[in-house]
Amino acid sequence: MLQHFKFTPMFENHQLPGWNISFFYKNERITGEYHPDGTITWRNKQPEDEEAVKKMIHELMLFHVYD
User: Fold this and answer.
1) Phi and psi (nearest 5°) for 31?
2) Mean pLDDT over residues 15-19, rounded?
3) Which InterPro entries did the record assign (predicted)?
4) What sign for the dihedral angle of Cα 39, 45, 46, 49?
5) What long-range pairs does 42-47 form, CB within 8 A, spacing at least 24?
6) What pTM did the predictor assign?
């Protein structure tokens, strides 16, 4: 489960898509970039079970951003 999930726009112009994301997963802080096409670029460390984490992130972004 992801904890303390946060996202902020990458650009000052909020119309341009792209978000910086950060969260804790298994007691590790992970950061990345969420792109408009749904791809994620990890900044510091790729999570162990990347596919499961990506699925959780996509669900959160759909709920918070694309709703």
Assistant:
1) -125, 155
2) 82
3) UCP037692
4) negative
5) none
6) 0.85
